[in-house]
Amino acid sequence: GDTEGTTASSEDETITLRAATGLSAQHAWWEASMVPWMERVEELTEGQVQFESFTSGELVSVPDEAEALETGTVDVALVLPIYQPDQFPMAEVTMLPLNHSDTLIASKAWKKLLESEEELADGKTYSEMQFGDFKVFPISTTQEYSISTTGHEFNTVSDVEGTSLRTPSRIHEMYAAKTGINSVTMPAVEIFDSLSRGTFEGAFYSIADWTGYGFQDLFRYTLTGINFGHFNSFIGMSQERWEEMPENVQEAMIQANEEIFEPGAQEWINRAEKIIPENEANGGKFVDFADLDPAVQDHFNNGIEETWTDYAALLEENGLPGNDLIKMWRDLLIEEGGEVPESIMNLE
Amino acid sequence: MNGVWKAYNIFHYIKLAGIWISGISVLLMMLMIVYDVTMRTLFSSSIRGGFEIIQNYMMPLVVFPGLAYVYASGVLPKMDLILERLNKKAKKIMIFFMLLLELFVLVLIVQFSWEYAMSGLDRKTAFPAAGTLYPLYPLFFLIPIAFAMIVIENIFIFIKNILDNNPSMVMRETENKPEELL
Amino acid sequence: MDNLVVIGIILAMMIVLLATGLYIHSVLLASGIIGLILLEGFGILPGLLGNEPFNRVASYTLTTIPLFVLMAQFILHSGLVQDIFYMVHKVSKGKNSLLGILTLIIGGMLGAVSGSGTATSASLGQVAIPELRKHGYSAPLAGAIAASGGSLSGIIPPSIILILYGVATETPVGSLFVGAFIPGILTMIVFILVMLVYFQMDRKKQQQVEEPVIHEVHTPEKLAISRLVIVSVIAILIVLIIFGGIYSGIFTPTEAGAVGAFVGFLSALVLGKVNFQFFKSSVVETIKLTGMVMIIMIGAQIFGRFVSLSLLPRQLIKLIEPIMDTPVLVLIAISVVLFFMFMFIEGAAVILMSIPVILPIIQELQVDILWFGVFVAVICTIGLITPPVGLSVYAVAGVSGISSGSIFRISMVFAVVAMVVVCGLMIAFPGLATWLPNSM
Ligand code: NA
Ligand code: NA
């Protein structure tokens, strides 16, 4: 409730914050970022701040977390802005496909993007333009997205064209259209059933996230060494609620965020490393992109380049600084050790 | 009471229009999904954005326009342990109490779902499907309209209970007599 | 206000409002809204009342509700089921108990193509109750048979409940489906046995009062052999298309609703029953049922938000902490708590609000997560036919006009027996749920 907040200026009054996610309690973002963050804040404030948490959509469903922060239904939440391209059209930038990156590279670039002081347009930074209503605590991105199928292989270009894959975001839909992949959308809970019965062939998904839906039992062919972007998230509070927090609490929250950031990203890598041998033991095959037929490689790569420029053009059409944004994202990624196709490097 | 019935008959036509919108929507929804399955099976291509369109457009159109008609038809379930055993006067008092409680709840829903729709209009809420954004906020207005119609139905029932001697929770005790269905 | 006080007030209020005969959706809405106001003040309402109705309805998975009902309507108005029941009546040579068994088995079979117990109950209520009544079943028993037969969709795969559980606990949904198969059949068998006992009791009662045993007034007009052949072929085709389509991957269990409705429509076309009246009555009945189920789901959703915020599930779980050393006791305690929660609250909501709290306990007890999911789905299925919130019974009451109170008096017995027998067996022999998935 609001009453605690307004009177919380004194340093010894207990502040109970309602924390929520629509994701499951086992999801890496909740288990390895949000929970450690909350525990650390409780520790640093010596119990002055307490969290009451609600997971799995018990109180708020994906992707209503941002709205729930604004209406005051919850005080702090995991926000997944990519699910709302109508409200946060520039959040999808981390989903742009790449030649190389990993969870740490993308996470650090995402954090830098959120904390960037650089003016993107109209005298505003990236965060001010997209998330001005929120206090943003950056957390890791997901592991990179791969293409996995229940057995369908990509040996020729015609194996790629006409294949039905489940697409998780607008960027993947754009990429699918470019490469002749037939994009399927369906509720996450139905994917397992449909995949196992052959309703479609595979999905764009991050390996570390497979266990969420039992995909480790299903996928038999995964393309690695090409990277279909990283899903992003942050821990958010409404600006209003944030400003009600006493200074020592604000400091504790920021410090806790710094501390949990890298271990949170590492968790994605650990999970993937655990899943890959299990999947291989089940007959799963991981194929390196560089080992594919050169014609197939070109086909995938052309799609990558066009997706970047198409996404920028889409934003520009809507009066947003798309060209500047993709260059900014490219530079941040390169700084952290990522790789993009040459034509993207050459964008000026 | 005659004037009330006249007004109620006009209102009845509005509800009928609603249930026809819902009815046509459910048939369309069936055809869309069957078409999608057929196209996917035979030509391995599906309606672009079909799933999102069905979920966000068709489902609300199936459920909300017909809701006032459904309410008035008396099919909505309740547990009837006490009411039927009361005398007329006590029954009437109970009915007034229940109607007021219903109105309180319904008016709150109308108010807040209206505010939600207006804020959606403000933000131009949209959903992504097959790489494009489709406007979502117009659908939000179905909810305050549907619940406002149920409020109107309840006001009619309220007036009927004031003017008429026989206490009742519905305007017309016709449809769904058990014998008709069994 | 203190959470426990608010919970007490709201539960008392619910019971009073239910007893006075307020519509069930209004009871849920009023208790939920007043509870939220008492807990948090008016300020909490805009964020929850404004968007919940839309979010609840705008779901692809829920298209199964109108579409499976539409399928039932088309099939009903094509005369197919009446003809089949007539044939079964002939086959059973006046053994009317067979009709009840058949209805429950059809319920189980419909369960294999439907994920939602409520929708199946409504369809079954419309098709089966008139026939059961003609063959000597009392109205409440016929209602209870339809409601419990339909509720089997909650446990016989595919099941929305199992899908939700799989997502909440990260358990493979496919394994859950396989694991639920034997307990689902077991539940069906228990329902059949309880039904037979009731049927015999009804019969004795009628004989004592020396009433005519069965209303044989109705002599079905003779059906031509050719029609019986056509009807049989169509019926088998429908089942084959739906089962075959789902299990071969041509369409998903959700899409099966639409395909089923379309096939039902084609059948009516072949049987020459399609005209304007056919469309009108099928569609209007479908919308009535859909509206009824959805408005209750909206109420349940808002009431569920109150329950979440009041931390009721956590308080309940706290009570069982002292007996953590004896897993069987904990499991029995959890089942009892869940049984009561499923009595009062819509199933999906219970899953969503209780799993985050119960799962850690289950893991600590080292109980198999898959086994527990099937176990919860059984209790949830049973919850569909227990008062005061038993969506399957309300669906049947809504379509048949039989009072929900009278159905509950019987379905509650179905529920308690199934709870004791099936859950008891599952605790004693966990292999009932785990053997199939492990051996595949
Ligand atoms: Na089922
Ligand atoms: Na119940």
Automatic annotation (TrEMBL), chain B:
Annotated Tripartite ATP-independent periplasmic transporters DctQ component domain residues: 29-152
Membrane topology term: Multi-pass membrane protein
Question: From what superkingdom does this record's organism come?
Answer: Bacteria
The places in or outside the cell where this protein is found are: Cell inner membrane
The keyword Cell membrane belongs to this UniProt entry's keyword annotation: yes
> Which residues does UniProt assign to the signal peptide?
none
Q: Can you quote a single GO CC term? A: plasma membrane
Which UniProt keywords are given for this protein, alphabetically ordered?
Cell inner membrane, Cell membrane, Membrane, Transmembrane, Transmembrane helix, Transport
Which residues span the membrane?
12-34, 54-72, 93-114, 134-159
Q: Which InterPro entries match?
A: DctQ (IPR055348), TRAP_DctQ (IPR007387)
Establish whether keyword Lyase is in the entry: no
A Pfam entry, by short name: DctQ
Homology family: Belongs to the TRAP transporter small permease family.
What is the protein name for this chain? Tripartite ATP-independent periplasmic transporters DctQ component domain-containing protein
